Amino acid sequence: MVRTRLKMAATLTVVVLALTGFQTGHGSGSGGGSGKSKSGKSRDDDSGGGCSSDEKSNDDYSGSGGSGSQMTAPTPTTSRAVADVVVVDCVKPAQKKRKGKPARKADTTATLRITSNSAYTETFAVTLEFKGSAGSAVDSAEALVTVEGGATKTFEVAMKTPKAVGQVKNCRVYDVREAPGATAATPTPSATSS
C-alpha cells in the first residue's frame, strides 16, 4: 500500500513537473513568438530597436532599387524617321502611238524626293520596290543619296530588271536607312531644292 502511494506520488510529481516544464516551454515559445510579432511590427511601423535598424536597411535597399529602376527605364519617346522619301514619278512601260497619244519609250527609272530630318549631312540608302498588279514585288533597287541637314533632294532609282517594266503598276519606298561612310556616287541628283 505504501509502495503504491509512493509510486502514485512519484508519478504525480513527474506529471506535475512535466506539465510545469511544458507550460514553461510553451510560455517561452509564446514569448519567442511574441518577440517575432513585435519584431515584425517594428518593421512595419518602423519603430525603435534592432528591428528598426533592419527596417531602415530594407527601406534603403528598396529605395535604391526603385531609383535604379527609374534610371534604367525612362519614358519612351517617339523618334523621327531619319528621312522622308516620296515617289514623285514611277516607271512606265513603252507605249505605241495611238489616237490622240504619241508613242512613248519605256521609262525604267523612278523619280523620288528625299527630305533629311538630320541636322548634319547624311548619306541614306533608299530601297524602292516596283509592285505588280497583284501587289507583289516585280523588282527592287537600292540607291545611295547624300543630303545636307534639313535639305530636300530629288533623285532617280533605276530598275535592276528593265524588261519587267511592263508588269509594274506602282512604286513603293520599302526602306530608308542611314549609310555611314558610304559615298553617293550614284544616282546623280536630277534636281535640288532647299
Q: How does this model look, in words?
A:
The structure is a single chain. The protein is an alpha+beta fold and 194 residues long. The protein has 2 domains: 2-72; 83-193, Immunoglobulin-like (Sandwich), CATH 2.60.40. It is built from 2 helices and 7 strands; from the N terminus they run ααβββββββ. Helix 1 crosses helix 2 (50-72). It starts with a helix and ends with a strand. The model is unreliable at 23-79 and 183-194 (pLDDT under 50).
Q: How would you sum up this structure in a few lines?
A:
The chain is α+β, with helices and mostly antiparallel strands and 194 residues long. It is built from 2 helices and 7 strands.
Largest sheet, in brief, is:
4 strands, antiparallel
What is the end-to-end distance?
126 Å
DSSP summary: helix tally: 2
Structural class: alpha+beta
The H/E string reads HHEEEEEEE
Number of folding domains?
2
Radius of gyration: 43 Å
CATH fold field value of the largest domain = Immunoglobulin-like
Q: What percentage of residues falls in helices of 4 or more residues? A: 25-40%
